[in-house]
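[Q] Does anyone have a clean structure-token version of this?
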Amino acid sequence: MCHAYSVTTNIEAIRQMVQTIFRFDVAANIGNLAPQTGVYPDMLAPIIRNRPGLERELVKVRWGMPTSSQALYQAAQARADKIAKKQGRDLTADEFAELLRMEPDRGTHNVRNTKSQHWKRWLGPEFRCIVPFTSFAEVSSEIGPDGKKLGNTWFAFNDSRPLAFFAGIFAPQWTSVRKTSEGLITTDLFAFLTTDPNNVVAVANPDAMPVILRTPEETEIWMTAPWEEAQKLQRPLPDGVLQVVSVGNKEDPPEENFPAPPAQQDLF
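[A] Here you go.
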């Protein structure tokens, strides 16, 4: 699964790309967008999302969709069992309900099984988004010359790391406990789809790669088409597409190699 990515393109470059290539306007309700060379789960990151009856908007949203209710129930039950053992009594129904309500949910940052009832509620066009990125990371278990695991293997379309987009979904105004220190909060959340890897990504992760939209036509299908058509985009890129641009770094590009990107650098 993809656990990190970078987006180093500025707001105007993203807006110009969607206006000139995708041919739709986007409102930038985001303030300044500093280069993010390492986006990790639960961080804020930019997405472009649909708004019913309005133009699409570029906003920053927290990465990690809601975890399934079954998984949260199981986690709460495990905690309840520990508490019961410590206190020498079972929790009451009200106590367990409160425990479940406050169960921390760190979020699910990749969406794979789109046939799951948990995800179906967010697969309509009104909940779809595109997620800008310039490179993404998979954790490699390969051992390097120093005897240590290689760690993050970063992929992009080429060394210049052109702007591209993941196929994403978002949940508006979801109430949950993301961190115990925060308590209950209500916020927008997003994640992006994954699929089988192509032969380039499979070297680091033989199980999955993000769903990447390559053309304006694919982007328009993802943002507007019924799920029966849009789901066909949940497929790997062709073999040979993408390349490894960095290995073993927590961010990409590594700080010492971070270039200033061209104003309209993109994939298309």
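[Q] Thanks! Anything notable?
[A] Confidence is low (pLDDT under 50) at residues 259-264.
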